[in-house]
Specification:
CATH class of the largest domain: Alpha Beta
Number of domains: 2
CATH topology of the largest domain: Rossmann fold
Number of strands: 10
Strand content: 15-25%
Order of helices and strands: EHHHHEHEHEHEEHHHEHEHEHEH
Structural class: alpha/beta
Length: 302
């Protein structure tokens, strides 16, 4: 992770802009048709993609001489297609000046020199590779319904708890026990903080934006978890032990998350369950965090 106090977010071109039509022409063994199609559109700005509202709000923290946030593009696209990516960013008023285009090569190796706090991509393999190197990352669902900019003055981020903010320790215990035994375990360990999960560093970065930084944009965060009372206490006390806060906490006791997220209207929601992500992406921009027991092969096939 980077040591700078600046929040640095890396985003793929396809997560930031709607390249779904162009992607239909893409072939791994021969990307020539895709590149040729993009070249014919160099002067045509791409439409916003799923991560666009998030990026626009993050960049809004940099007004009046501040430089608290940097967003850079890390893309498998070729440099010529990169002309369209930069042109689209300029068209939409996104102050993005840094980008790396790898022409199909794995991009995750550049996350460390860039000092990234978060990597967002549509490519599942790139996200897994980034996480294997210790970087917070999520696979953005390109068809997410959250491309409309809402709540202009408020950056809203929602996190699942176990296997996202927290490790999958409790999730593994839950799978070995009955619900009542799991709750008893969490109550007995309520004052023992859960180990951090893959997106805990990004929550730290968001809290640093909230604390003592003046901006026209504020941060509002939410914990949205299947936990219910009395297992809620360990989650809250873990955040307290870390010295971080969330503005809202939803302990849903297994109820579907999508309707609640539709009301909260986050700029992105992070979850480790593919099933949850597929449901919530119909309402809000969603990032799948491929971490923990729910993403191990024997579980994923069930």
């Amino acid at each position: 992770m980077g040591t700078s106090e600046k929040v640095i977010v890396m985003v793929s071109a396809r997560a930031l802009f709607d390249f779904e039509e162009e992607n239909l022409a893409f072939r791994d063994d021969d990307p020539a048709a895709y590149r040729a199609l993009q070249e014919t559109k160099l002067d045509l700005p791409a439409q916003p993609g799923a991560a666009f509202p998030l990026v626009r709000k993050l960049l809004a923290f940099n007004g009046e001489g501040r430089n608290d946030v940097e967003v850079a593009i890390l893309s498998r696209n070729d440099p010529v297609t990169g002309l369209r990516v930069f042109g689209s960013a300029r068209h939409h008023g996104l102050a993005i000046s840094r980008a790396i285009f790898t022409s199909g090569a794995a991009p995750h190796r550049y996350l460390r020199p860039l000092g990234a706090n978060l990597f967002l991509s549509v490519n599942a393999l790139d996200v897994r590779a980034a996480m294997a190197r210790g970087f917070p990352a999520a696979r953005v669902y390109p068809a997410s319904a959250g491309t409309r900019l809402r709540n202009n003055a408020e950056l809203r981020i929602a996190f699942d708890g176990d296997s996202v903010l927290f490790s999958d320790e409790a999730e593994r215990i839950f799978r070995r026990m009955q619900l009542e035994q799991f709750i008893d375990h969490e109550v007995r360990n309520a004052r023992i903080p859960l180990p951090p999960g893959p997106l805990k560093p990004f929550l730290d970065a968001l809290c640093s934006l909230q604390r003592g930084r003046r901006s026209t944009v504020t941060v509002r965060s939410a914990l949205v978890t299947a936990r219910s009372a009395p297992a809620h206490e360990r989650a809250i006390r873990t955040l307290m032990a870390w010295g971080v806060t969330v503005d809202e906490a939803m302990f849903l006791g297994g109820r579907p998350k999508a309707p609640f997220l539709a009301e909260f209207e986050p700029d992105i929601f992070f979850d480790d369950h593919v099933r949850n992500c597929e449901s919530t992406s119909r309402h809000v921009t969603t990032g799948h965090v491929p971490y923990g027991i729910n993403n191990e092969p024997e579980v994923a096939l069930q």
